[in-house]
Protein backbone atom coordinates (compact mmCIF):
# COMPACT_ATOMS: atom_id res chain seq x y z
CA UNK A 1 0.00 0.00 0.00
CA UNK A 2 1.28 3.46 -0.89
CA UNK A 3 0.03 4.89 2.40
CA UNK A 4 -2.65 7.10 3.85
CA UNK A 5 -3.46 10.38 2.18
CA UNK A 6 -5.78 13.21 3.12
CA UNK A 7 -6.90 16.63 1.99
CA UNK A 8 -4.42 19.51 1.95
CA UNK A 9 -5.76 22.98 2.76
CA UNK A 10 -3.54 26.01 3.05
CA UNK A 11 -0.49 23.76 2.78
CA UNK A 12 -1.54 21.62 5.77
CA UNK A 13 -3.16 18.22 5.92
CA UNK A 14 -6.78 18.28 7.04
CA UNK A 15 -7.70 16.10 10.00
CA UNK A 16 -10.59 13.67 10.28
CA UNK A 17 -12.71 12.04 7.64
CA UNK A 18 -13.90 8.58 6.69
CA UNK A 19 -11.69 5.93 5.12
CA UNK A 20 -11.86 4.96 1.46
CA UNK A 21 -9.55 2.44 -0.21
CA UNK A 22 -8.29 3.23 -3.69
CA UNK A 23 -7.54 -0.13 -5.27
CA UNK A 24 -5.52 -1.47 -8.16
CA UNK A 25 -8.20 -2.65 -10.64
CA UNK A 26 -5.71 -5.14 -12.12
CA UNK A 27 -5.47 -6.78 -8.70
CA UNK A 28 -8.51 -5.73 -6.73
CA UNK A 29 -7.13 -7.06 -3.44
CA UNK A 30 -4.27 -4.55 -3.62
CA UNK A 31 -4.91 -1.21 -1.92
CA UNK A 32 -2.97 1.60 -3.60
CA UNK A 33 -3.86 4.21 -1.00
CA UNK A 34 -6.14 4.65 1.99
CA UNK A 35 -7.90 7.99 1.53
CA UNK A 36 -9.41 10.13 4.28
CA UNK A 37 -12.58 11.56 2.76
CA UNK A 38 -13.52 15.00 4.03
CA UNK A 39 -16.96 16.36 4.86
CA UNK A 40 -18.85 19.32 3.36
CA UNK A 41 -17.50 21.80 5.91
CA UNK A 42 -13.94 20.88 4.98
CA UNK A 43 -14.70 21.64 1.34
CA UNK A 44 -16.26 25.01 2.09
CA UNK A 45 -13.41 25.79 4.51
CA UNK A 46 -10.93 25.12 1.70
CA UNK A 47 -12.80 27.65 -0.43
CA UNK A 48 -12.48 30.28 2.30
CA UNK A 49 -8.75 29.56 2.55
CA UNK A 50 -8.39 29.86 -1.21
CA UNK A 51 -10.26 33.18 -1.24
CA UNK A 52 -7.86 34.62 1.32
CA UNK A 53 -4.78 33.42 -0.58
CA UNK A 54 -6.02 34.49 -4.01
CA UNK A 55 -5.72 38.22 -3.39
CA UNK A 56 -1.95 38.04 -2.89
CA UNK A 57 -1.47 35.54 -5.72
CA UNK A 58 -3.28 37.87 -8.14
CA UNK A 59 -0.78 40.63 -7.25
CA UNK A 60 2.13 38.47 -8.43
CA UNK A 61 2.98 39.72 -11.95
CA UNK A 62 1.59 37.43 -14.63
CA UNK A 63 5.02 36.72 -16.21
CA UNK A 64 6.22 35.51 -12.79
CA UNK A 65 3.17 33.26 -12.50
CA UNK A 66 4.15 31.97 -15.94
CA UNK A 67 7.56 30.99 -14.60
CA UNK A 68 5.84 28.98 -11.86
CA UNK A 69 3.88 27.16 -14.56
CA UNK A 70 7.18 26.50 -16.35
CA UNK A 71 8.56 24.96 -13.14
CA UNK A 72 5.51 22.70 -12.85
CA UNK A 73 6.10 21.46 -16.39
CA UNK A 74 9.75 20.67 -15.72
CA UNK A 75 8.91 18.91 -12.44
CA UNK A 76 6.27 16.75 -14.15
CA UNK A 77 8.69 15.97 -16.97
CA UNK A 78 11.38 14.90 -14.52
CA UNK A 79 8.90 12.62 -12.73
CA UNK A 80 7.03 11.43 -15.81
CA UNK A 81 7.76 7.71 -15.54
CA UNK A 82 6.99 7.51 -11.83
CA UNK A 83 3.72 9.38 -12.24
CA UNK A 84 2.71 7.27 -15.26
CA UNK A 85 3.42 4.04 -13.38
CA UNK A 86 1.24 5.23 -10.52
CA UNK A 87 -1.60 6.07 -12.94
CA UNK A 88 -1.30 2.59 -14.47
CA UNK A 89 -1.34 0.96 -11.06
CA UNK A 90 -4.26 2.94 -9.70
CA UNK A 91 -6.70 3.07 -12.63
CA UNK A 92 -5.46 0.29 -14.92
CA UNK A 93 -4.62 2.52 -17.88
CA UNK A 94 -2.02 0.91 -20.18
CA UNK A 95 1.41 2.34 -19.42
CA UNK A 96 1.94 3.77 -22.91
CA UNK A 97 -1.31 5.71 -22.59
CA UNK A 98 -0.47 6.80 -19.06
CA UNK A 99 2.88 8.13 -20.24
CA UNK A 100 1.07 10.04 -22.99
CA UNK A 101 -1.31 11.46 -20.40
CA UNK A 102 1.59 12.76 -18.33
CA UNK A 103 3.13 14.24 -21.47
CA UNK A 104 -0.08 16.22 -21.94
CA UNK A 105 0.52 18.00 -18.63
CA UNK A 106 3.95 19.04 -19.85
CA UNK A 107 2.49 20.25 -23.15
CA UNK A 108 -0.15 22.25 -21.29
CA UNK A 109 2.49 23.89 -19.11
CA UNK A 110 4.67 24.62 -22.14
CA UNK A 111 1.76 26.40 -23.79
CA UNK A 112 0.71 28.44 -20.77
CA UNK A 113 4.11 29.45 -19.45
CA UNK A 114 4.20 32.04 -22.25
CA UNK A 115 0.63 33.17 -21.69
CA UNK A 116 1.87 34.97 -18.58
CA UNK A 117 3.33 37.49 -21.03
CA UNK A 118 0.34 37.38 -23.34
CA UNK A 119 -2.68 38.06 -21.13
CA UNK A 120 -3.38 40.82 -23.61
CA UNK A 121 -6.00 43.49 -23.35
CA UNK A 122 -6.65 46.14 -25.98
CA UNK A 123 -6.41 49.89 -26.36
CA UNK A 124 -9.66 50.99 -27.97
CA UNK A 125 -10.24 54.33 -29.74
CA UNK A 126 -12.80 56.61 -28.09
CA UNK A 127 -15.53 58.52 -29.89
CA UNK A 128 -14.46 61.66 -27.99
CA UNK A 129 -11.14 63.57 -27.87
CA UNK A 130 -8.74 63.41 -24.93
CA UNK A 131 -10.16 60.09 -23.78
CA UNK A 132 -8.66 56.59 -23.85
CA UNK A 133 -10.36 53.22 -23.57
CA UNK A 134 -8.74 49.99 -22.36
CA UNK A 135 -9.65 46.36 -21.70
CA UNK A 136 -7.99 44.03 -19.18
CA UNK A 137 -8.19 40.34 -18.33
CA UNK A 138 -8.68 39.91 -14.58
CA UNK A 139 -8.87 36.63 -12.60
CA UNK A 140 -12.31 35.40 -11.61
CA UNK A 141 -11.18 34.64 -8.03
CA UNK A 142 -11.55 31.12 -6.65
CA UNK A 143 -12.15 28.16 -8.96
CA UNK A 144 -13.66 24.96 -7.57
CA UNK A 145 -12.49 22.15 -9.87
CA UNK A 146 -14.07 18.69 -9.75
CA UNK A 147 -12.54 16.04 -11.99
CA UNK A 148 -13.09 12.41 -12.96
CA UNK A 149 -10.50 9.67 -12.60
CA UNK A 150 -10.25 8.22 -16.10
CA UNK A 151 -7.67 10.91 -16.88
CA UNK A 152 -6.53 11.53 -13.30
CA UNK A 153 -3.66 13.92 -14.08
CA UNK A 154 -4.03 15.28 -17.63
CA UNK A 155 -7.58 16.61 -17.43
CA UNK A 156 -7.03 18.30 -14.05
CA UNK A 157 -4.06 20.11 -15.58
CA UNK A 158 -6.40 21.60 -18.19
CA UNK A 159 -8.11 23.43 -15.34
CA UNK A 160 -5.32 23.96 -12.81
CA UNK A 161 -2.64 25.35 -15.10
CA UNK A 162 -4.65 28.15 -16.79
CA UNK A 163 -6.56 28.96 -13.60
CA UNK A 164 -3.35 29.47 -11.64
CA UNK A 165 -1.62 31.26 -14.49
CA UNK A 166 -4.48 33.76 -14.67
CA UNK A 167 -4.16 34.62 -10.98
CA UNK A 168 -6.90 32.48 -9.46
CA UNK A 169 -6.75 30.21 -6.44
CA UNK A 170 -8.11 26.68 -6.78
CA UNK A 171 -9.89 24.09 -4.67
CA UNK A 172 -9.47 20.77 -6.48
CA UNK A 173 -11.67 17.76 -5.74
CA UNK A 174 -10.37 14.74 -7.70
CA UNK A 175 -12.05 11.36 -8.00
CA UNK A 176 -11.48 9.34 -4.84
CA UNK A 177 -10.74 6.15 -6.82
CA UNK A 178 -7.75 7.98 -8.38
CA UNK A 179 -6.65 9.72 -5.18
CA UNK A 180 -3.03 8.57 -5.15
CA UNK A 181 -2.42 9.91 -8.66
CA UNK A 182 -4.08 13.21 -7.73
CA UNK A 183 -2.05 13.56 -4.54
CA UNK A 184 1.17 12.94 -6.48
CA UNK A 185 0.23 15.64 -9.00
CA UNK A 186 -0.61 18.03 -6.16
CA UNK A 187 2.84 17.49 -4.64
CA UNK A 188 4.49 18.31 -7.98
CA UNK A 189 2.48 21.54 -8.21
CA UNK A 190 3.35 22.42 -4.60
CA UNK A 191 7.07 21.86 -5.26
CA UNK A 192 6.96 24.64 -7.87
CA UNK A 193 6.77 27.25 -5.13
CA UNK A 194 3.04 27.99 -5.18
CA UNK A 195 2.12 29.89 -1.99
CA UNK A 196 0.11 27.96 0.57
CA UNK A 197 -3.63 28.18 -0.04
CA UNK A 198 -3.38 28.98 -3.73
CA UNK A 199 -3.95 25.31 -4.62
CA UNK A 200 -5.95 23.18 -2.19
CA UNK A 201 -6.69 19.47 -2.50
CA UNK A 202 -9.92 18.06 -1.07
CA UNK A 203 -10.86 14.38 -1.14
CA UNK A 204 -14.60 13.90 -0.67
CA UNK A 205 -17.48 11.85 -2.01
CA UNK A 206 -20.07 13.35 -4.33
CA UNK A 207 -22.66 14.22 -1.70
CA UNK A 208 -20.21 16.04 0.57
CA UNK A 209 -18.70 17.85 -2.40
CA UNK A 210 -22.07 19.10 -3.62
CA UNK A 211 -23.09 20.23 -0.14
CA UNK A 212 -19.77 21.98 0.41
CA UNK A 213 -19.91 23.63 -3.00
CA UNK A 214 -23.43 24.88 -2.34
CA UNK A 215 -22.28 26.40 0.97
CA UNK A 216 -19.26 28.04 -0.66
CA UNK A 217 -21.39 29.55 -3.41
CA UNK A 218 -23.77 30.88 -0.77
CA UNK A 219 -20.80 32.42 1.07
CA UNK A 220 -19.42 33.94 -2.11
CA UNK A 221 -16.05 32.17 -1.87
CA UNK A 222 -16.32 30.35 -5.22
CA UNK A 223 -16.47 32.31 -8.45
CA UNK A 224 -16.03 29.60 -11.07
CA UNK A 225 -16.83 25.89 -11.09
CA UNK A 226 -15.09 23.47 -13.42
CA UNK A 227 -16.55 19.97 -13.68
CA UNK A 228 -15.59 16.91 -15.69
CA UNK A 229 -17.96 13.97 -15.31
CA UNK A 230 -21.36 12.63 -16.19
CA UNK A 231 -24.13 14.56 -17.90
CA UNK A 232 -26.47 13.83 -14.99
CA UNK A 233 -24.18 15.39 -12.37
CA UNK A 234 -23.26 18.19 -14.76
CA UNK A 235 -26.92 19.20 -14.95
CA UNK A 236 -27.12 19.45 -11.15
CA UNK A 237 -23.97 21.56 -10.99
CA UNK A 238 -25.25 23.76 -13.80
CA UNK A 239 -28.52 24.34 -11.94
CA UNK A 240 -26.68 25.14 -8.71
CA UNK A 241 -24.35 27.62 -10.41
CA UNK A 242 -27.23 29.19 -12.30
CA UNK A 243 -28.93 30.10 -9.02
CA UNK A 244 -25.80 32.11 -8.20
CA UNK A 245 -25.63 33.71 -11.67
CA UNK A 246 -22.50 31.77 -12.52
CA UNK A 247 -21.68 29.86 -15.68
CA UNK A 248 -19.69 26.70 -14.92
CA UNK A 249 -17.18 25.05 -17.22
CA UNK A 250 -18.83 21.68 -17.90
CA UNK A 251 -17.05 18.86 -19.73
CA UNK A 252 -19.50 15.97 -19.74
CA UNK A 253 -20.14 12.65 -21.45
CA UNK A 254 -20.23 11.71 -25.09
CA UNK A 255 -21.78 9.31 -27.56
CA UNK A 256 -19.23 9.99 -30.20
CA UNK A 257 -19.98 8.95 -33.79
CA UNK A 258 -17.54 7.78 -36.43
CA UNK A 259 -18.84 8.00 -39.99
CA UNK A 260 -17.08 5.71 -42.48
CA UNK A 261 -17.79 6.83 -46.05
CA UNK A 262 -17.83 4.56 -49.09
CA UNK A 263 -14.46 5.90 -50.21
CA UNK A 264 -12.76 5.57 -46.81
CA UNK A 265 -9.40 3.91 -46.25
CA UNK A 266 -10.85 0.97 -44.33
CA UNK A 267 -7.62 -0.13 -42.69
CA UNK A 268 -7.16 3.40 -41.32
CA UNK A 269 -10.78 3.53 -40.17
CA UNK A 270 -10.44 0.19 -38.39
CA UNK A 271 -7.30 1.38 -36.62
CA UNK A 272 -9.11 4.52 -35.49
CA UNK A 273 -12.17 2.59 -34.33
CA UNK A 274 -10.04 0.12 -32.38
CA UNK A 275 -8.14 2.83 -30.51
CA UNK A 276 -11.06 5.14 -29.81
CA UNK A 277 -13.48 2.34 -28.99
CA UNK A 278 -11.30 0.22 -26.73
CA UNK A 279 -8.31 2.32 -25.62
CA UNK A 280 -8.55 3.06 -21.88
CA UNK A 281 -11.10 0.20 -21.97
CA UNK A 282 -13.59 2.54 -23.64
CA UNK A 283 -13.63 4.78 -20.58
CA UNK A 284 -12.95 8.13 -22.21
CA UNK A 285 -15.49 10.88 -22.72
CA UNK A 286 -14.24 10.86 -26.32
CA UNK A 287 -14.52 7.09 -26.79
CA UNK A 288 -16.23 5.86 -29.93
CA UNK A 289 -19.94 5.25 -29.37
CA UNK A 290 -21.30 4.17 -32.75
CA UNK A 291 -19.59 3.47 -36.06
CA UNK A 292 -21.92 4.65 -38.82
CA UNK A 293 -20.71 2.85 -41.94
CA UNK A 294 -21.79 3.23 -45.55
CA UNK A 295 -23.86 0.25 -46.61
CA UNK A 296 -21.47 -0.58 -49.48
CA UNK A 297 -18.51 -1.14 -47.12
CA UNK A 298 -20.36 -2.14 -43.94
CA UNK A 299 -19.62 -5.86 -44.10
CA UNK A 300 -15.98 -5.38 -45.07
CA UNK A 301 -15.38 -2.81 -42.32
CA UNK A 302 -17.09 -4.98 -39.73
CA UNK A 303 -15.06 -8.04 -40.69
CA UNK A 304 -11.77 -6.17 -40.53
CA UNK A 305 -12.64 -4.55 -37.20
CA UNK A 306 -13.67 -7.88 -35.68
CA UNK A 307 -10.42 -9.52 -36.77
CA UNK A 308 -8.35 -6.60 -35.48
CA UNK A 309 -10.06 -6.74 -32.10
CA UNK A 310 -9.53 -10.49 -31.85
CA UNK A 311 -5.81 -9.94 -32.37
CA UNK A 312 -5.54 -7.10 -29.86
CA UNK A 313 -3.99 -7.62 -26.45
CA UNK A 314 -6.20 -7.38 -23.38
CA UNK A 315 -4.56 -7.77 -20.00
CA UNK A 316 -1.97 -6.40 -17.59
CA UNK A 317 -1.79 -2.64 -18.28
CA UNK A 318 1.92 -2.65 -17.49
CA UNK A 319 2.39 -4.62 -20.72
CA UNK A 320 1.83 -3.91 -24.41
CA UNK A 321 -1.97 -4.16 -24.51
CA UNK A 322 -4.85 -2.34 -26.15
CA UNK A 323 -6.74 -2.11 -22.88
CA UNK A 324 -6.56 -3.20 -19.29
CA UNK A 325 -9.24 -3.43 -16.61
CA UNK A 326 -12.15 -1.13 -15.87
CA UNK A 327 -11.39 1.71 -13.49
CA UNK A 328 -13.14 0.54 -10.35
CA UNK A 329 -15.90 -1.74 -9.06
CA UNK A 330 -18.54 0.94 -9.62
CA UNK A 331 -17.69 1.18 -13.31
CA UNK A 332 -17.64 -2.60 -13.69
CA UNK A 333 -21.16 -2.80 -12.23
CA UNK A 334 -22.37 -0.04 -14.52
CA UNK A 335 -20.80 -1.70 -17.55
CA UNK A 336 -22.65 -4.90 -16.79
CA UNK A 337 -25.86 -2.85 -16.92
CA UNK A 338 -24.90 -1.62 -20.38
CA UNK A 339 -24.44 -5.20 -21.55
CA UNK A 340 -28.07 -5.73 -20.56
CA UNK A 341 -29.04 -3.22 -23.25
CA UNK A 342 -28.08 -5.74 -25.97
CA UNK A 343 -31.32 -6.80 -27.65
CA UNK A 344 -32.39 -9.81 -29.74
CA UNK A 345 -32.19 -7.77 -32.95
CA UNK A 346 -28.53 -6.99 -32.24
CA UNK A 347 -25.66 -9.18 -33.39
CA UNK A 348 -22.60 -9.46 -31.15
CA UNK A 349 -19.79 -10.16 -33.62
CA UNK A 350 -16.83 -10.01 -31.21
CA UNK A 351 -17.33 -13.23 -29.24
CA UNK A 352 -17.98 -13.63 -25.51
CA UNK A 353 -19.26 -10.79 -23.34
CA UNK A 354 -19.03 -10.07 -19.63
CA UNK A 355 -16.22 -10.35 -17.16
CA UNK A 356 -13.13 -12.31 -18.22
CA UNK A 357 -12.74 -15.26 -15.85
CA UNK A 358 -11.44 -18.81 -15.90
CA UNK A 359 -14.94 -19.88 -16.93
CA UNK A 360 -15.24 -17.08 -19.52
CA UNK A 361 -11.66 -16.57 -20.77
CA UNK A 362 -10.27 -14.51 -23.62
CA UNK A 363 -8.02 -17.11 -25.22
CA UNK A 364 -5.50 -18.05 -22.54
CA UNK A 365 -6.19 -14.95 -20.46
CA UNK A 366 -8.44 -15.56 -17.45
CA UNK A 367 -8.35 -12.04 -15.98
CA UNK A 368 -7.54 -13.46 -12.57
CA UNK A 369 -7.77 -10.89 -9.80
CA UNK A 370 -8.74 -7.94 -11.97
CA UNK A 371 -11.76 -6.10 -13.35
CA UNK A 372 -11.20 -7.30 -16.91
CA UNK A 373 -14.08 -7.45 -19.40
CA UNK A 374 -14.45 -8.74 -22.93
CA UNK A 375 -14.48 -5.94 -25.51
CA UNK A 376 -17.74 -6.01 -27.46
CA UNK A 377 -18.81 -5.02 -30.97
CA UNK A 378 -22.58 -4.94 -31.54
CA UNK A 379 -23.86 -4.78 -35.10
CA UNK A 380 -27.36 -3.77 -36.10
CA UNK A 381 -28.00 -1.02 -33.55
CA UNK A 382 -31.03 1.13 -34.38
CA UNK A 383 -31.70 4.83 -33.72
CA UNK A 384 -34.20 4.06 -30.95
CA UNK A 385 -31.92 1.66 -29.03
CA UNK A 386 -30.41 2.63 -25.69
CA UNK A 387 -27.11 1.33 -27.06
CA UNK A 388 -27.41 3.95 -29.80
CA UNK A 389 -28.68 6.85 -27.68
CA UNK A 390 -26.86 6.61 -24.35
CA UNK A 391 -23.22 6.85 -23.34
CA UNK A 392 -21.76 3.42 -22.57
CA UNK A 393 -18.66 3.99 -20.45
CA UNK A 394 -16.72 0.84 -21.22
CA UNK A 395 -15.35 -1.40 -24.00
CA UNK A 396 -18.45 -1.64 -26.19
CA UNK A 397 -19.25 -0.01 -29.54
CA UNK A 398 -22.25 -0.20 -31.83
CA UNK A 399 -22.26 -0.41 -35.62
CA UNK A 400 -24.97 0.68 -38.03
CA UNK A 401 -25.14 1.59 -41.71
CA UNK A 402 -26.25 4.52 -43.88
CA UNK A 403 -26.88 5.25 -47.54
CA UNK A 404 -26.48 9.06 -47.86
CA UNK A 405 -24.36 11.58 -46.01
CA UNK A 406 -27.52 13.40 -44.89
CA UNK A 407 -28.71 10.17 -43.28
CA UNK A 408 -25.31 9.67 -41.63
CA UNK A 409 -25.40 13.18 -40.16
CA UNK A 410 -28.93 12.66 -38.85
CA UNK A 411 -27.81 9.45 -37.15
CA UNK A 412 -24.64 11.06 -35.80
CA UNK A 413 -26.55 13.95 -34.23
CA UNK A 414 -29.54 11.97 -32.97
CA UNK A 415 -28.27 11.04 -29.45
CA UNK A 416 -28.02 14.74 -28.56
CA UNK A 417 -24.44 14.62 -27.29
CA UNK A 418 -21.95 16.89 -28.99
CA UNK A 419 -18.40 16.25 -27.82
CA UNK A 420 -16.29 14.52 -30.45
CA UNK A 421 -16.90 13.09 -33.92
CA UNK A 422 -15.00 11.56 -36.77
CA UNK A 423 -15.37 11.00 -40.49
CA UNK A 424 -13.24 8.75 -42.70
CA UNK A 425 -13.24 9.77 -46.35
CA UNK A 426 -10.89 10.62 -49.21
CA UNK A 427 -13.25 13.31 -50.54
CA UNK A 428 -12.66 16.85 -49.19
CA UNK A 429 -16.26 17.80 -50.02
CA UNK A 430 -17.54 15.01 -47.76
CA UNK A 431 -15.21 16.11 -44.97
CA UNK A 432 -16.42 19.72 -45.10
CA UNK A 433 -20.09 18.76 -45.44
CA UNK A 434 -19.68 16.56 -42.38
CA UNK A 435 -18.04 19.38 -40.42
CA UNK A 436 -20.86 21.77 -41.32
CA UNK A 437 -23.59 19.32 -40.36
CA UNK A 438 -22.28 17.75 -37.17
CA UNK A 439 -23.22 19.21 -33.79
CA UNK A 440 -20.02 18.17 -32.04
CA UNK A 441 -17.53 20.63 -30.64
CA UNK A 442 -14.66 18.61 -32.13
CA UNK A 443 -14.32 17.01 -35.56
CA UNK A 444 -11.63 14.62 -36.78
CA UNK A 445 -11.06 13.75 -40.43
CA UNK A 446 -9.36 10.39 -41.01
CA UNK A 447 -8.53 10.24 -37.31
CA UNK A 448 -10.20 8.70 -34.29
CA UNK A 449 -12.70 10.39 -31.98
CA UNK A 450 -10.01 10.44 -29.25
CA UNK A 451 -6.86 12.52 -29.16
CA UNK A 452 -6.81 16.11 -27.89
CA UNK A 453 -3.87 18.47 -28.31
CA UNK A 454 -2.96 21.01 -25.66
CA UNK A 455 -3.39 24.09 -27.87
CA UNK A 456 -6.81 23.33 -29.41
CA UNK A 457 -10.17 24.04 -27.74
CA UNK A 458 -11.65 20.96 -26.08
CA UNK A 459 -15.32 20.75 -25.16
CA UNK A 460 -18.81 19.85 -26.24
CA UNK A 461 -22.35 20.97 -26.81
CA UNK A 462 -25.77 19.61 -25.96
CA UNK A 463 -25.60 16.72 -23.50
CA UNK A 464 -21.80 16.94 -23.62
CA UNK A 465 -21.47 20.40 -22.09
CA UNK A 466 -22.62 23.99 -22.05
CA UNK A 467 -20.36 25.27 -24.81
CA UNK A 468 -17.42 26.08 -22.54
CA UNK A 469 -13.99 25.17 -23.86
CA UNK A 470 -10.77 23.95 -22.30
CA UNK A 471 -7.20 24.03 -23.60
CA UNK A 472 -5.41 26.61 -25.67
CA UNK A 473 -6.07 30.32 -25.33
CA UNK A 474 -9.84 29.69 -25.33
CA UNK A 475 -9.84 28.34 -21.77
CA UNK A 476 -8.69 31.75 -20.52
CA UNK A 477 -12.26 32.91 -21.08
CA UNK A 478 -13.24 30.50 -18.30
CA UNK A 479 -10.74 31.78 -15.75
CA UNK A 480 -10.62 35.49 -16.53
CA UNK A 481 -13.21 38.22 -16.89
CA UNK A 482 -12.98 41.21 -19.17
CA UNK A 483 -12.75 44.57 -17.44
CA UNK A 484 -13.24 47.80 -19.39
CA UNK A 485 -11.70 51.12 -18.35
CA UNK A 486 -12.12 54.62 -19.75
CA UNK A 487 -9.73 57.45 -18.88
CA UNK A 488 -10.93 60.95 -19.70
CA UNK A 489 -8.10 63.52 -19.48
CA UNK A 490 -10.02 66.40 -21.08
CA UNK A 491 -10.68 68.07 -17.75
CA UNK A 492 -14.42 68.14 -18.33
CA UNK A 493 -17.34 65.69 -18.30
CA UNK A 494 -17.81 64.23 -21.76
CA UNK A 495 -21.02 62.25 -22.02
CA UNK A 496 -20.95 59.19 -24.27
CA UNK A 497 -23.39 59.27 -27.21
CA UNK A 498 -24.23 62.90 -26.31
CA UNK A 499 -21.07 65.01 -26.58
CA UNK A 500 -19.90 63.48 -29.85
CA UNK A 501 -18.74 65.67 -32.74
CA UNK A 502 -21.07 65.38 -35.71
CA UNK A 503 -19.78 65.57 -39.28
CA UNK A 504 -22.78 66.23 -41.50
CA UNK A 505 -22.80 64.77 -45.00
CA UNK A 506 -24.64 66.28 -47.98
CA UNK A 507 -27.09 63.42 -48.39
CA UNK A 508 -28.69 65.06 -51.44
CA UNK A 509 -25.52 65.11 -53.47
CA UNK A 510 -25.73 63.30 -56.82
CA UNK A 511 -23.30 62.95 -59.72
Key terms:
511 residues; alpha/beta; seven-stranded mixed beta sheet; five-stranded parallel beta sheet; globular
Short structural description:
Helices cover 36% and strands 20% of the residues. The protein has helices at residues 40-59, 62-78, 80-91, 95-113, 154-165, 179-190, 206-219, 231-243, 266-278, 298-311, 329-339, 386-389, 405-413, 428-437, 476-479; strands at 4-5, 8-9, 12-13, 18-24, 27-37, 123-125, 131-139, 142-146, 169-173, 199-201, 224-228, 249-251, 256-260, 288-294, 347-348, 376-379, 396-402, 417-418, 420-424, 442-445, 461-462, 480-488.
What does this structure look like?
- The protein contains 15 helices and 22 strands.
- β19, α14 and β20 (442-445) form a beta-alpha-beta unit.
- Strands 15-16-17-14-13-19-20 form a seven-stranded mixed sheet, with helices on both faces. It has a five-stranded parallel sheet with strand order 10-9-8-11-12, with helices on both faces.
- The protein is of the alpha/beta class.
- It starts with a strand and ends in a 23-residue tail after the last strand.
- The mean pLDDT is 96.
- α2 packs antiparallel against α4 (95-113).
> What's the average pLDDT?
96
Radius of gyration: 25 Å
The major β-sheet equals: 7 strands, mixed
Strand content: 15-25%
How many distinct helices? 15
Unreliable parts:
none
Strands, count: 22
Given the C-alpha coordinates, what overall shape results? globular
What's the end-to-end separation, in Å? Answer: 90 Å
DSSP helix fraction: 25-40%
Order of strands across the biggest sheet?
A: 15-16-17-14-13-19-20
Structural class computed from helices and strand pairing:
alpha/beta
Amino acid sequence: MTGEISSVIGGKQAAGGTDYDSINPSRVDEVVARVRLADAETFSSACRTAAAAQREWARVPAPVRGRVIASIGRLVEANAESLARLVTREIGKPYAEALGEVREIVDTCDFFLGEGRRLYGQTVPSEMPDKNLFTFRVPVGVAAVITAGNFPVAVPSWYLVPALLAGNAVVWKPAEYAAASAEALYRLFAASGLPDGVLNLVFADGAATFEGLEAALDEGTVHKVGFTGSTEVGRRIGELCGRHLQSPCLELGGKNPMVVAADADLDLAVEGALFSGFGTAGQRCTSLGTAIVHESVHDEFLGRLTRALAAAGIGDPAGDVLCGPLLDHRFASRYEEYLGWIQPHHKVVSGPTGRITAGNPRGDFTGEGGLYYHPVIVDGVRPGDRLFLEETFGPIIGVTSFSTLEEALELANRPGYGLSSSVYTTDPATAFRFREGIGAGMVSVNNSTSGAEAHLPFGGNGRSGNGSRQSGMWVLDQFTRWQAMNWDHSGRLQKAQMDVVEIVPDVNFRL
